[in-house]
Amino acid sequence: MGKTKFGPQTLLFPMPAVLVGARVNETANFMTAASAPPAVTVALRPPRFTLSGIRATGTFSINVPSADMAKVVDYCGIYSGHKHDKSGLFHVDYGVLQTAPLVRECPVNLECKVLHVLDLKSHQLIVGEIVESYVRSDCITDGQPDAAKINPLVYITGSQQYCRLGEIVGRAFSIGKKD
User: Fold this and answer.
1) Are 86 and 114 in contact (CB under 8 A)?
2) CA 176 to CA 74: how far, in whole Å?
3) Are the CB atoms for 126 and 54 separated by under 8 Å?
4) What is the distance between the alpha carbons of residues 48 and 83, in angstroms, rounded to a whole number?
5) To 10 degrees, the CA torsion angle through 61, 12, 145, 69?
6) Separation between Cα atoms, residue 75 and residue 94, nearest integer Å
7) 138 to each of 110, 163, 168, how far by Cα in Å?
8) How far is CA 91 from the centre of its chain?
9) What does each C-alpha distance from 119 to 32, 42, 46, 126, 175 come to in angstroms?
10) For the segment 97-139, what is each residue's pLDDT rounded down to a tens digit?
11) Residues 40-54: pLDDT tens digits?
12) Which residues contact 39 (CB under 8 A, 6 or more apart)?
């Protein structure tokens, strides 16, 4: 496969950094949340072809495409597997679970086992435990996944556009320290 195993990690790029706010003891408090347990969620509409496979096997994969893959990624979103066989679009590998197809062309793959399915009426929210993560060898710097080399495809909801990651603005757990 030409990829390095990293164990169960949430290697999604970008990982949003958000401020979670709550009223605690009659005062506002905020914390930064930018990491996650080794789990992911995906919300799929019930008629989706992929959802039937997830239900049948109890496994799925999250494959992080590079920005160079925008055209084929968009194709996969436009055409349903009910009418179009997409199995020949990529080279497929299988990891430790043996039932979740991993896209070899994607620089990062997360192999997942279904933990929970939550019915949201219009969608099914699938919570998956990441059992293994894989990163292409040329996307690793100093033993860690390198987001710049991964060059992940980023989707902007409002404008419905695909983008690349931008510039680095600072080192986490460092730039916020008081002098």
Assistant:
1) no
2) 38
3) yes
4) 11
5) 70
6) 23
7) 17, 21, 20
8) 19
9) 29, 12, 9, 9, 41
10) 999 999 999 999 999 999 999 999 999 999 999 999 999 999 9
11) 999 999 999 999 999
12) 10, 115, 127, 128, 129, 130
Q: Do residues 151 and 65 lie in contact, with contact meaning Cβ atoms separated by under 8 Å?
A: no
**Domains in the chain: ranges and CATH:** 3-11+37-163 (2.30.110.10)
Cβ-count burial of 128 within 10 angstroms (0-12 exposed, 13-18 middle, 19+ buried)?
buried
Give the pLDDT of residue 1. Answer: 57
Contact between residue 134 and residue 1 where contact means Cβ atoms under 8 Å apart: yes
CA distance 96 to 139: 21
Q: How far is CA 108 from CA 59, 83, 167, in A?
A: 17, 27, 20
- With a cut of 90, say whether residue 34 has pLDDT above it: no
SS (H, E, C) 45-69: CCCCHHHHHHHHHCEEEEEECEHHH
List residues bridging with 36 in a β-sheet: none
Residue 41 to residue 43: CA distance in whole angstroms: 7
Q: Which residues pair with 145 in a beta bridge?
A: 140
In order of 25, 36, 61, 116, 175, the CA distances from 29 in angstroms are 9, 20, 36, 30, 20
